[in-house]
Amino acid sequence: xxxxxxxxGLRKVYEGAGRRVEAVRDLTxxxxxxxxxxxxxxxxxxxxxxxxxxxxxLAPTSGEVLLGGRxxxxxxxxxxxxxxEYGRSLFPWMRVGENVELPLRxxxxxRVRRRELVVDALESVGLADAAGAYxxxxxxxxxxxxxxxxxLAYEPEVLLMDEPFAAVDAQTRADxxxxxxxxxxxxxxxxxxVTHDIDEAVYLGERVLVLSASPTVVREQLKVDLPxxxxxxRTRVAPRFAELRTRVYEQIQAAKRGExxxxxxxxxx
Length: 269
Ligand code: ADP
Ligand code: MG
Hints:
Blueprint: E1 5-16, E2 19-31, E3 36-40, H1 47-54, E4 62-67, E5 70-71, E6 79-82, H2 86-89, H3 96-101, H4 111-124, H5 140-153, E7 158-162, H6 170-187, E8 190-195, H7 198-204, E9 207-211, E10 218-223, H8 234-237, H9 239-256, E11 262-264
Parallel strand pairs: 3-8, 3-9, 6-7, 7-8
Antiparallel strand pairs: 1-2, 1-4, 2-11, 4-5, 9-10
Helix pairs in contact: 4-5, 7-9
This protein binds adenosine-5'-diphosphate (ADP) and magnesium ion.
Protein name: ABC transporter
Domain ABC transporter: 5-238
GO molecular function: ATP binding; ATP hydrolysis activity
């Protein structure tokens, strides 16, 4: 039972402190059940805002998000989220193993099964030995891997990732990209992966959505017609890879020419 995601006419306006920012104007797109879609767009174009609305952490100004046909109005069960600011998403007073186990407590699982999931998840991100450490004893890249392990252990149907590898070193990043593809292929989960890295979007995605600058709309949807089996060395030098990245690059450049809309707040009534 895997769920599709439908974003329909989504708009988000932030209001407060005399400012009114229309972060997302009108977004409509679908991620099919079991699909891996990458979303790219210039910094500040509303990617995090969009994901927070999709995760039920932020109420849209208008429009809606449907998960498996049901409207999202709070964090839906079966959805896991890897935040951009991972450092803040781990509890410093809990050991790594406890951090990974925490969301599992919402599930009706025995203690043994929970432990098993934690061990498996930490192993799959290469941190089998770190279960007893505190997050602040780990490097940034390791902390991010803990956040990913926490999402995996939960065995989500839908995984939303917000620029999850922006702060890790190149080698770890390549390994984690391959991990995401492997998990997606093995577990058939629905994945929406946000990145500002064009090569990463093309390498990872089965489809790439290019967003415009804020106020955001979908500028283009591109099918990534590369073989399902990807390889860090071979895929990235394939002629088709170069064509796709050029196409996405051109679209991003065009998108960057827009400016965010900042209007004065309406006068008080
Ligand atoms: P991205 O993730 O693509 O970099 P964000 O979704 O973080 O973009 O931000 C989109 C726009 O909304 C930016 O102009 C940002 O300044 C604004 N914004 C984000 N969060 C808030 C907030 N809580 N209050 C007011 N404006 C915000
Ligand atoms: Mg962001």
